[in-house]
Amino acid sequence: MRIIRMTAAALALGAGPALAAQDTITLGMQLEPPNLDPTGGAAAAIDEVTYANIFEGLTRFAADGAIIPGLARSWDISEDGLTYTFHLAPGVTFHDGTAMDAGDVKFSLDRARAEDSTNAQKALFAGIADVAVIDPLTVRITLSAPDGGFAFKMAWGDAVIVAPESAETNAAAPVGTGPFKLARWVQGDRIELERHPDYWGAAPALSKATFRFISDPNAAFAAMMAGDVDAFPVFPAPETLEQFKADPRFTVIVGSTEGETVLAMNNKQKPLDDVRVRAAVAHAINRQDIIDGAMFGYGTPIGTHFAPHNPDYIDLTGISAYDPEKSKALLKAAGVSDLTLRMALPPPTYARRGGEIIAAQLREIGITTEITNMEWAQWLEQAFRGKDFDLTIVSHTEPMDIGIYARPDYYFQYDDLGFQALLALLDNTSAPEARSGLLKAAQGKIAMDYVNGYLFQLAKTGVANAKIKGLWENAPTQANDLTGVTWEE
Amino acid sequence: MLRFAATRLVSLGLSLIAASLVIFAVIEVVPGDPAAFMLGLNAEPEAVAALRDELGLNGSRAARYLSWVGGMVTGDFGQSYTYRVPVSQLVLQRLWVSLPLALYALGLSTLIAFPIGLIAASRRGRPADYGIMAATQLGVAVPNFWFAMLLVLVFAVNLRWFSAGGFPGWEAGAFAALKALTLPAVSLALPQASILARVMRSALIETLGQDYIRTARAKGLSRRQAITRHALRNALIPVLTIIGLQFSFLLAGAIIIENVFFLPGLGRLIFQGITQRDLVVVESVVMLLVFAVILVTFLVDLAYAAADPRLRHRR
Amino acid sequence: MRWPVQLIIGAILSGLFVLAAAASFLWVPHEVSTLSIADRLKPPSARYLLGTDHFGRDILSMLMVGARTSIAVALVAVGIGVAAGVPLGLAAAARRGSLLDEIIMRGNDLIFAFPSLVIAILITAVFGPSALNAILAIGIFNIPVFARVTRGGALSIWTLDYILAARVAGKNALRISAEHILPNILNLLIVQGTIQFSLGILAEAGLSYVGLGAQPPTPSWGRMLADAQTMIYTAPRLAILPGLAIVGMVLGLNLMGDGLRDALDPRLRRARE
């Protein structure tokens, strides 16, 4: 009898509200951020930890990619489109207790656009002519030219607001305005965040969040299976997702990213400077084999450098359809035989596996490929900056980045006056229909010029404990926004 | 003895200088600019240049070598490019994982190797000996990372007795920390134990063949008594030498195992340092490890010389 | 002379892999350079005896060609060790106690003092990962091993009477080393060579496992293991078969080494009662 009563008591206790909700979470990430200052580094991992959690900007991305208010509760745009007036939220404090006001906004933006700035996305601030403090809660930004996308630019992680007192030390000891603050960083292992009690907005449901860094896909799988991590928002081993889907303990979150994965070709390197040779390479690629073989089916084929979930996207995969016979004819017409191309592959799975598959596909049309696997640092120096490569595979994860094709010194070195004129026109156009038409024309132009081999849009494949709700499905920007994450009872 | 120690000390110093030159030279030619790596794909050239200045990458080679060595001597290992914290702090943090792991693995391997080496030697030529010898042959042949994979599959994923990796930190309690180090230590210990057991067996057998043991046996001691009373002590010297060697191997050589179990140890610090082009970390940690090995060798030499005066004049 | 059992077992075991590697030059069940994505992760069948990997390549063929890579890397690395280490060891022994001896032995200690895997990683970081650099990285660490073994063996022979006779007869150190010392330490070198060969196979597997060995599409056992890791739960044979191949090859070589030692080393043979 006593035993029964005790069990009943225990049951009642277990169902009680006090013990109900778990309020800590452990997230797995493949790469560790080198530092925690989003204004001083480009590593995606910095934003994946800090964005919306530690640091906030004037505006921010919502989970669906929309631009919503951040520290600025609203903003007005002048008639001529040159002046943006941001109205800041009152009562915002930094983690060190100091107040956030218009002075901090001016400091942050001026610092980012300064001559000696180490901001990795300086271009975001290039259009700013002046930042003026009107009163503690109002900032007026004057642009040198109208820019319909300015609110979008201010939502980037590189544009977050920092305080003058802590700006220099944010790398190791970040001080932001977000709902979480840094509790501990064990370099090489994990970062722990804890709830900031004086947060100005709605308090998050989680009291503590831990990011653990597990670079090895196998270890990531094992850690998920063993319950060492609760969620792995960007899971590095797509081949194991079936396993997770079959297991009721987990949910698999498949969404889209801004990552156009391309087989980049060095447009200035002989014989790739000949459009027929590039077309031959493009027609030799069987996209579905790459998506199946490298990503185990996750990914959407693309025929140009544009995200399929964008309303202005047009499906141009037909232009570079898989047709090895055509490739052989094109090579013959170009007078190229016994071609050997060097392929530089950075570390991600899509590149390493995709590269092996493409090498085999190119062999079918008589092109030999020499693969060199590289670390990011080496890839950046040799392929990206040194332009010493023939082929490489990269996923371009910045949103709306078709503009890179207008930069003749960008690593694939596509130098076309027509395209550059098109983009210049786009920059000066604000009417939505006209913009849409120009964007479509731009997509067509680079597809017809076979600048790169357009492979697929990278999918965001995440795995999480089935009881976790509120993780981002898509990745409009690299972030793990924890403000809306809860545990289901 | 003093002269012997002095010459050894001079050669120790020369070795360290040579090692530091080799390490610095290798690091200098590693391709990949740390500043460009940190700022990423779309970084502006001016931003990269500004960061290079900040990291002190623009000085002359000789000046940088001297400031590095000078810093090391005074205990200042520089600042990590990536983490922007002192290298000594990173090393200390990692040592708290690597040192216990190495000791744990070494302890396990010794615990396994001693008894089975002893059994094999005392049952020489009998089935037990053959069985043990066959098992240790297998142990030596198994790549430790493959063994680690199998351990994870069985004990972490299927049985869920251990977690698949990671390290909770010592503040989570000694039990939790040791538990996290158990699978890694076992996978490191298996080949080491196999080697050690074989050395133990052959050292024992060799001593057993010597005259004084024959005399002892002739006096009526059993084989087992001869081993425990006389041979064991003498066989210990080669065994201890191997243990010493294994320790320094384990300290740095656990890189692959640390990766399989994502342990934040010294080996992985070097590996990460190389991929992230955090070259200050790489050169300082490698130098530190080399220093440790050279120092251990020096101390062993001294100990031998103290124990056996003949060694001082031989060579 | 009776051949030790281990020598026979070891020779058969490692011979099997050498044979498979050699055969792969002439014939493999399926070409490893062609991928057939549609056939990926197929279980063993009559068509694919050991099944296929994530690219639809035949595992058996991959293992055969992979054996080629492992053996080539380990063998050349031993070659480097012998070519540089043996002359150094002979020179050190011939000029025992001299400055030359001191420099060579301290140099040896210096190489030994470097954590080998770390240096291998550094070398590949500098020159890029490739089979050639894996050979270099493993080969460098073979040099002091052979130098030490050679010196040790040579020293004991220098003290023998007939060497003294040769010296009295006016032969110089170089000739004595070549004519009398080297032939007499050949046994030692063969045994050490076998051991280093097996260590080389393990080292190559480790290096290509972390992505620093032979580059794709060249198959190698270590990279097969790395590729198979995440599939160990869905297709365990992918991770188990290459591991077994490594174990088999290394075990065979180690048994051979032990057997050779017993067969060739007269001192030990006597000790065997």
UniProtKB/TrEMBL annotation, chain A:
CDD domains: PBP2_NikA_DppA_OppA_like_6 (cd08494). GO terms for cellular component: ATP-binding cassette (ABC) transporter complex; outer membrane-bounded periplasmic space. GO terms for molecular function: peptide transmembrane transporter activity. The keyword Amino-acid biosynthesis does not apply. Residues 1-20 form the signal peptide. Residues 67-396 form the Solute-binding protein family domain. The keyword Amino-acid biosynthesis does not apply. It is found in: Periplasm. Keywords: Signal. It comes from the Bacteria. GO terms for biological process: peptide transport. Belongs to the bacterial solute-binding protein 5 family. This is Peptide/nickel transport system substrate-binding protein. The lineage of its organism: Bacteria, Pseudomonadati, Pseudomonadota, Alphaproteobacteria, Rhodobacterales.
TrEMBL record, chain B:
Keywords: Cell membrane, Membrane, Transmembrane, Transmembrane helix, Transport. It holds the Pfam family BPD_transp_1. The chain crosses the membrane at residues 101-120, 132-157, 169-190, 235-257, 285-307. Its main location: membrane. InterPro entries: BPD_transp_1_N, MetI-like, MetI-like_sf. It is found in: Cell membrane. One of its GO terms (molecular function) is dipeptide transmembrane transporter activity. Belongs to the binding-protein-dependent transport system permease family. This is Peptide/nickel transport system permease protein. It comes from Actibacterium naphthalenivorans.
